[in-house]
Design goal:
Elements lengths: L12 E5 L4 H12 L3 E6 L5 H6 L3 E5 L5 H15 L4 E4 L14 H29 L2 E6 L12 H21 L4 E8 L14 H9 L10 H12 L10 E4 L7
Parallel strand pairs: 1-2, 1-4, 2-3, 4-5, 5-6, 6-7
Length: about 250
């Protein structure tokens, strides 16, 4: 018997940013396993390994905050696969620094990746999706869309901005059959903190243990959620911030 969940992305074409590791790599792999064609993009050349793993994945190395990268990604999707159905804006950076200690360069570095990059890719994707009359944009946010902690001012502000950007995308896209949502994870065991501390994954496991579920999430769990939001099972969901935070924001 056919499994409608496993086949729900069959033939879809997706762009996934920040795909060299963590949630982005998990999304690219899952989408390809379920029959989608994927443009996996990252500034890190290591993203190329995904193309070697699966013939449904093509990779692109570029800075997500660069306008040319956004255009190249959409162009690659159209040239190789003929269309674009899903955009997953996953690329993100974080910095742990109190406001009084933060430089303008620190602030801009976070905003450029987390907000500017998402805007540029959404804009280019919309131009294709509007012509098609369909599409789904999924911006990977954070529970920092709704809650805050000391030392993450730039990150929290970027995720709040991403939530508002998504709501506008949903309103502008709705007349054209395009949905836009935020998937907002809590702590996920990835390498996002590796440049900031000796063992970022251990810190995330410890912080995740404070959630009501008492553990950190794995990238594959968030990828499953993103696949659902991308699918027709979520066809009536748009303009939403959808939390997958182990109950953290319920406290």
């Amino acid at each position: 018997m056919n499994n409608p969940v496993i086949e729900e992305l069959q033939g879809k074409v997706a762009i996934v940013t920040g795909a060299a590791g963590g949630v982005g790599a998990a999304v690219a792999r899952l989408f390809a396993e379920r029959g989608a064609f994927v443009v996996a993009q990252d500034i890190k050349p290591a993203v190329g390994a995904l193309e070697e793993e699966n013939e449904r994945i093509v990779t692109l190395v570029g800075d997500v905050a660069d306008e040319a990268t956004a255009r190249r990604s959409v162009q690659l999707a159209k040239e190789r696969f003929g269309r674009l159905d899903v955009l997953v804006n996953n690329a993100a950076r974080i910095i742990n620094r109190n406001v009084v200690e933060m430089s303008l360069a620190d602030w801009d570095a976070i905003m450029n990746v987390n907000v500017r990059g998402a805007f540029l890719h959404a804009r280019e994707a919309l131009r294709v999706m509007i012509d098609q009359g369909s599409g789904s944009i999924i911006n990977v946010g954070s529970y920092a869309c709704q809650v805050a902690f000391p030392s993450i001012a730039a990150y929290a502000a970027s995720k709040g901005a991403l939530a508002q950007l998504t709501r506008v995308l949903a309103l502008e896209g709705a007349p054209h059959g395009i949905r836009a949502n935020v998937v907002a994870p809590g702590d996920v065991e990835t390498g996002i903190l590796d440049e900031l501390m000796p063992d970022g994954r251990a810190f995330l496991r410890e912080h995740g243990a404070q959630s009501p579920l008492g553990r950190v999430a794995q990238p594959e769990e968030i990828a499953e959620f993103i696949a659902f939001v991308a699918s027709e099972r979520a066809s009536y969901i748009t303009g939403s911030v959808l939390l997958a935070d182990g109950g953290y924001t319920a406290v």
